[in-house]
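User: Quick sanity check before I run a bigger batch. Here is a single chain. Can you write out its predicted 3D structure?
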Amino acid sequence: MNGKIDSKEITPRQVARKALALAVSLLLLILVMVLPLGKIDLIRKPFIYAAIIISTAVAALAVIFHRREFPVKTVRLYYHFADFLLTLNIILVTVQLFFLFLYFPATVDKTSMYPNLENGDRVIVRSRVQPQRFDVVVLKIDGKVNKLTLGIADGELLIKRVIGMPGDEFYYEDGYLHLNGELVPEPYLTDTDGNFLTSGSLYNTYTQDFDLSQYATIGDKAVCVPDQACRIPEGYYFVLGDNRAYSIDSRNLGLFHKSQIVGVARYRIKTLFDWEKI
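Assistant: Done. Predicted structure follows.
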């Protein structure tokens, strides 16, 4: 028999086992959808909903197959279709879990990270990892934490660079970052001669002077007290776009909580086999 199930050998018990396996895969798929494991929808919901509805209907048909006899061709068709759905559900669950706990792809939208990341660039993001200073991160807007301004909507995804970490104090003067009492270079903003990068009205990496205390907010409340040292609270981050003159970031939206960080961008996909480390 070469290890294969011939159509004449598909018994009601085999059909029931296949339907049970399909039901189990269906429950796993629903759990992945329902449980708050991720901050974003990594696989399109309509596609998953379709898989859930069709799998539910096919698994339920096993009751009819158990109570009535059907032609061999009908049984074979049901068996192999249920097997196809089982495989599809397993793939969906595996891919979703891989995206949630390891890596997922994302596409850069708009120009706030010019010239280092351009509109439409594809990046690979590391999920569930603690960001380090100057990491490029994907964040999710939370209307309870951020100011919703300049067309930014609750739940919207942004890609920015981490500048301030918990406990940091800093300010910018003449375009340069002064962090915790030291002048800290930002080589991703300058050319080899140390000049800030600019291209007309498209991008400009020069940072206008500001102090953390001006923009350190959580919701509508200011974090800092006048005439006292201003530090970023525990669990919060200050982010900026590399395109400093045109970016909407913590200067407009306030601080971001660590729970809003979806992941850290690790690679930019230039071609299928050419990935550039960010």
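Residues 12-103 form one domain.

User: Great, the batch can go ahead then.
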